[in-house]
Amino acid sequence: MERVGGAVRHTTMTLRHVVAALALTLPLAACSTEEEMRAVDPSGSGDPAAATSGAAPTPVPDGEVRTNGLVTVLDDGDGPEMCLGAIAESYPPQCGGPALADFDFGDVGAERASGVTWGSYALTGTFDQTTFTVTDAIPAALYDVVAEPEAGGLEPACETPATTDTTRTTPQDMDATLAAASALPTYATAWLSGATINVAVTEDAAGAEAELRRTWGGMLCVTTVERTEADLDRVNRELQSALGDALLTSGSYAPDSLDAQVVFDDGSIQAWADETWGEGLVKVTSALQPVEG
């Protein structure tokens, strides 16, 4: 079982270190596994070689940066690390990330078990792509968390989802409909918004809706997008290969796009992604933010 610390999400962990990217379970897929990560093909041609417009940039912050809220810091005996990716919910936890310098767990908030020390901290410091040198560390117990509104989830794909037969709205009907959607030759993705089934296809939305109405009488929205799920899968694999350890998470949270979080981006990784796969396909966010002022 895993969770994502702070505001971050994708890594594969050994007993000590995060050594590779881990695909995030997709909320848009009806029955997604980690192998079914959303992905990337800039031209839609299906040719992975078409998505290479140069090496990905590796920006280094000019000044101090801060974590986006609290992150887990863990020391399993080789020195403290800042966990920006997935965290295994074992006891003690397992995670890894950039090494920390000038860090002290302090007297508040740290836990110790089986030779491992860990805790949650909001960190400020400098980062050279390898080591985060801490200038300020606030433990979770002393950190004033500002409440943020909860995400409302994905909206329906149409303004007025229609219902045709309320006798065909059971969980079994829903499962059958989602399975039928994934079998459509032009299937791109599917998601639920409340009791509404939303399906995106690359063409012939009317034909897809007619097919899905064979098993589902509840609220249904069918829309069209440019890329199939397979197209996005190809792009995601290319993205993971190009960014390597700089990529923390990648997945799809809206039709026809990918969300990627990296350790640090000053805008150059986003610009590279736009040039490589087209503007708007990959949306890049940064786990470390510049300290303003």
Description:
The protein has 293 residues and is α+β, with helices and mostly antiparallel strands. It has 4 helices and 18 strands. The protein has helices at residues 171-182, 205-212, 229-243, 268-277, and strands at residues 2-4, 12-13, 18-20, 65-67, 71-75, 81-83, 86-88, 99-101, 111-113, 116-127, 131-139, 187-193, 196-201, 220-224, 247-251, 258-262, 282-286, 288-290. Strands 4, 5, 6, 8, 9, 10, 11 and 18 form an 8-stranded mixed sheet that branches. A 3-stranded mixed sheet has the order 12-13-14, with helices on one face. The radius of gyration is 21 Å and the shape is elongated. The model is unreliable at 1-52 (pLDDT under 50). Residues 37-66 are annotated as: Disordered. Residues 42-57 have a biased composition (Low complexity).
Secondary-structure map with pairings?
Layout: E1 2-4, E2 12-13, E3 18-20, E4 65-67, E5 71-75, E6 81-83, E7 86-88, E8 99-101, E9 111-113, E10 116-127, E11 131-139, H1 171-182, E12 187-193, E13 196-201, H2 205-212, E14 220-224, H3 229-243, E15 247-251, E16 258-262, H4 268-277, E17 282-286, E18 288-290
Parallel strand pairs: 8-11, 13-14, 16-17
Antiparallel strand pairs: 1-7, 2-3, 4-10, 4-18, 5-6, 5-10, 9-10, 10-11, 12-13, 15-16
Q: Any key phrases for this structure?
A:
293 residues, 3-stranded mixed beta sheet, 18 strands, alpha+beta
Concise account of the structure shown:
With 293 residues, the chain is α+β, with helices and mostly antiparallel strands. Helices cover 15% and strands 29% of the residues.
How would you sum up the major sheet? 8 strands, mixed
Poorly predicted regions are: 1-52
Output the number of helix runs: 4
Structural class: alpha+beta
Give a count of the beta strands, DSSP E runs of length 2 or more: 18
Helix content: 10-25%
Q: Let me know the average pLDDT.
A: 80
Terminal-residue CA separation: 40 Å
**Rg, Å, rounded:** 21 Å
Overall geometry comes to: elongated
Give helix and strand order, one letter per element, not per position: EEEEEEEEEEEHEEHEHEEHEE
Work out the strand percent: 25-35%
